[in-house]
Amino acid sequence: MTGRERETRLLLTGWSLHLPGVEGFDGAPPEKAAAVLGRKGLLYKEPSTRLALCAVHRALGFEPGQRATGPIEAGTAVVACSNLGNVETVAKVTRAVEAEGGRAVSVLDAPNVSPNVVASTVALWFGFGGPNLMLCSGSTAGLAGLRMASLLLRSGRATRVVLVGAEPEDEIASILHDGPLRAGSACVILEPWREDSGHAVVDFEQGEAARTVGPGGFDVKEQWGDFYGAHGVVELALAAHLAVVEGEGRVGIGPRRPDGGPAVSVAVTDHSDEMGSP
Amino acid sequence: MSGVVVTGWSALTSAGVGVDALAKKLALAEAGQVEKGQEIGDLYEEPLPAASGHVLTSFSPREHLGRKGTSTYDRSTGLAVVCCQEALREAGVSLDDEARPRIGVVLGTSLGSFKSTSDYTRETLVQDKPYLVNPMLFPNTVMNCAAGQVAIRFGLRGVNATIAGGTLGFLNVLRYAGNAIDRGHVDVVVAGAVEEFTPHRAWATHLTGATDVVAPGEAAGMFVLAKENTPEWAGTRQRAGVLAVATAYGPGGGDAAETALAGCVSRVLAKAGADAAEVSTVYTGEVEDDDRREYGPIVRALGHSPERVMVKRLFGECDAASGAVALGVLLAEERDSGPGGLSLLTARGADGAVGAAIVRRYADGGPDRG
């Protein structure tokens, strides 16, 4: 392998799908997040924040209730993707100000009106001290997050990136989205590509894939629902699951081209065969 | 990004409010002069590390904006909103219903208002119960407060972003704004950076050792950026062209950052299709002649030694806003820019982040675009 792989590949060292009500990938709904995370510290945490924490918890391979211990990990970055996580609180606070004035607002709601609460809470909860980014860029937020993660790793800004997507399904979010949402979260943990280790890689090069996640293949939106800002991360984590756990080898992401290959050149591939490891 | 043009701008610096105050100070300053700033007087009750700094001593947002809607503004929000008003006026932007959705705001900062954040946090500790904190002041604690208030005040409904880039803040803003225009998200961006003078920032600058040579300062600089073929409502003059911006990161600082900065300079030249010989002036974040952390890599990349301007000597350490002050100085100065007339703006952060922008100034407000 040469330097080219270092530019087009990332190591995928962990992933999770936390999709309440989806068979095979079910997870605790936000109000029962304590079953995964433990009880302490969840007061006033919003549904999308809780879902994001659950996804990261599972991607790290933590036991239920287990907490991160040890020093702050300065090299670990958080990239969170969520568009409508805080809109219910924003609407609630705005209505309270309009109806009863500023004094009627609970101070404990204050952090939740800031959209970056998902990214910052994940960092505080798990002790990730690296760059902290929140992407609210619509349906493509997950893929934009992957691009950000790739830049952070390739430039040496971070040695590990926790890419997490989470979206709620409350009334306000559905109105703003102009369509039904499905609550869920997913997480992938990315590291710079190394020759001698790893199980799965994200490969940005074109290549024929055994299966495709997306229109023409397993269409997440059609099969499970619209995870909106988290969609891209859900696809990535699902592709990792199919590639490694279900032994599909290389799984493409994106709509299928007429010739059969995935249109987007992101593919998750099981790395173990290539490495000759068991 | 491809290049954008500046159709108008303004700056609030220790020289005062607006372009004229800045130009007047520049005309009076001697080459290489280091200013200690003004007496801060009774602006704050809290003790300060020094009695002087680069402050706008009698600044009052109300004087420029009126009473309505300004009562909860913190200092950096006030500076940003007033500066934006001046910049839009200077550019001659006509703010109607057609224009407003097509104008964005991109603002650089280090921490937002450090004072608002720490005062609010302090309140939660010293009040009897946490819920006695005034929720109306909460918006000031988020970093994007100033950019948000600017958009609300003038009804600018395009992209609204705050970039916390520290020393590189303003260069990041130019790059982000150029991309937003390039990709068609907006036609115009009011791009700038703001930093307030408070005891919090004064102590932070003092304790991190940044005030050895220059005093901490406050400033806001806002620039109306547009594509060359933008509708007339965006202003009809071209003051300057921001031809290209590049940023990079040299892990750990040191030699890696030097190489990264030289790389940025080469990249902006290539992107702009310019020759190194055309660069006559560079505006750096350094403060001393023998400090060549930015100038060294620039000279290496260009192959010659252009004139170096260190704006922090006159206007203090304004962190994220120093880059905006530099572009303001570039535009306001009566400088014989020589053949080619290109300038570079550079920045280098302690962590190894570096960046460069290449700017062409048009004489006398530039060609009429109308």
TrEMBL record, chain A:
Residue ranges of every copy of the Beta-ketoacyl synthase-like N-terminal domain listed in the record: 47-167
Organism: Amycolatopsis umgeniensis
GO MF term set: acyltransferase activity
Residue segments, region Disordered: 253-278
Residues of the signal peptide: none
Top-level taxonomy: Bacteria, Bacillati, Actinomycetota, Actinomycetes, Pseudonocardiales
InterPro entries (alphabetical): Ketoacyl_synth_N, Thiolase-like
Protein name from the UniProt record: Beta-ketoacyl synthase-like N-terminal domain-containing protein
Automatic annotation (TrEMBL), chain B:
Gene Ontology biological process: fatty acid biosynthetic process
Top-level lineage group: Bacteria
UniProt keyword list: Acyltransferase, Transferase
Domain Beta-ketoacyl synthase-like N-terminal intervals: 2-203
EC numbers on record: 2.3.1.179
An annotated Gene Ontology molecular function: 3-oxoacyl-[acyl-carrier-protein] synthase activity
Pfam families: ketoacyl-synt
UniProt cross-references to InterPro entries, sorted A to Z: Beta-ketoacyl_synthase, Ketoacyl_synth_N, Thiolase-like
PANTHER family according to UniProt: 3-OXOACYL-[ACYL-CARRIER-PROTEIN] SYNTHASE, MITOCHONDRIAL, POLYKETIDE SYNTHASE-RELATED
Protein name as it appears in the record: 3-oxoacyl-[acyl-carrier-protein] synthase II
